[in-house]
# Entry
Amino acid sequence: MNWRTINIDLLDPESPANFSIATLSPAAPRVSASEVQSLSSQIKQLLRGGDSEGALRGALENPPYGGDAAAKEVHLATVIEILQSLKQSEMSPMLSRIHESEGGVEILDVLMKYLYKGMSHSSKPSSAATSSMSPQSTGFSQIHSRGGGEGGGQAMSVLLSWHEKLVEIAGPGSIVRVMSDRRTV
# Structure
């Protein structure tokens, strides 16, 4: 037996190899897509009624951590719709009020998660653009412009504006907390 090939971590009871990684993240209750759709319609009703802060707070206080991919996509679309409906001059005062309220730090961390998820979604090319991809003599393929396709530039601009204001209010600690949190939106 070669002593160099023995995995000593398996022999140590304190080793991370001896416990389930699932215990690191809290269990999230299961959420169906219909429940998220119902919440989304209530939130959109608040938005249409002029209560944009209430709509944003309602969307961020109830993230579907235990939902399937469809439920999370519906909620992401709702959050992005709220963010796009607000004026840039309303961002900082609203974020300040949320930050100073009870549970405000956690709410802003959830907003940061949605900003990153929205940025990752708006940068993916659509399947139609991928099928019409034309290779160039330079070796690069032209799929779409840098903004993420049709209208992607405007959505990315809105998300980046929110990100700037959010880091200004909540600080860079929000980024660290979001990157280290195992729960995904």
Residues 104-122 form the longest helix (19 residues). The longest strand covers residues 134-135. The beta strands are 134-135, 141-142. The radius of gyration is 21 Å.
